[in-house]
């Protein structure tokens, strides 16, 4: 249960992080990690360009909303808000139909170009639950950028192609993006255009993975395969059942000494799910390490947080 009495902690953390993040997109409060009592259904993201997006994941009482509004009024009158050039505060109700979003301060743009690690991404605001970039994967994209030079890369469940943008920026020879949502891949093209990338190095496959192995193999073998699926996608993917189907295909997709970045973002699925599944389905791949999560995504239980696991083909 969220409480109005806990909100001073929210604004204290928020102000401290706003003072540090300049104009890059960044999570500035993460209550979902259960590290802040009475605030576990509250997050805040600084999008740059003067925009702060607050999200509530579970309906609270009128006292909480009144205290939140009062705190926001104080925030926008503060030196912190002036120094970060803040103009807009929006509130997304993730618990309501269509993730209803309201504007509390200023005017909400329908789209916004944000910067992460010096790269540009286009986000949608007020239209859907997810705006186009998962901020907890920041260090994963950074790792890909740092390890992409000269490599052929397969990006499964590509969404808006954040990994692809990072890979091409890092010098990848070729990136193949696969996602059944063609609208997400279209946004991926836009993201590459925003960064002046050579799209002859990028392919976009708008297909369901399990019906498209032939198309995927055609561009291989790959030096790096990225697997970042949803936990559940009605009619197409159930993580605990379908992840194994991908892993057992890895030997025919990944070059000798190639890498796999396997990701899970389901709190109830622990890291050993991936290591055990890999041993069973693709024993030629050895576990190397788990990537760190961004420090701003603090979690009371690291096993419940995002899992990004690095494996290497030892065949």
TrEMBL record:
Keywords: Methyltransferase, rRNA processing, S-adenosyl-L-methionine, Transferase. The keyword Iron does not apply. InterPro entries: SAM-dep_methyl-trfase, SAM-dependent_MTases_sf. Its EC number is 2.1.1.264. Residues 26-311 form the S-adenosylmethionine-dependent methyltransferase domain. The keyword rRNA processing applies. Transmembrane segments: none annotated. It is an enzyme of class 2 (transferase). GO terms for biological process: methylation; rRNA processing. GO terms for molecular function: methyltransferase activity. It comes from the Bacteria. It holds the Pfam family Methyltrans_SAM. This is Ribosomal RNA large subunit methyltransferase K. It comes from Grimontia celer. The lineage of its organism: Bacteria, Pseudomonadati, Pseudomonadota, Gammaproteobacteria, Vibrionales.
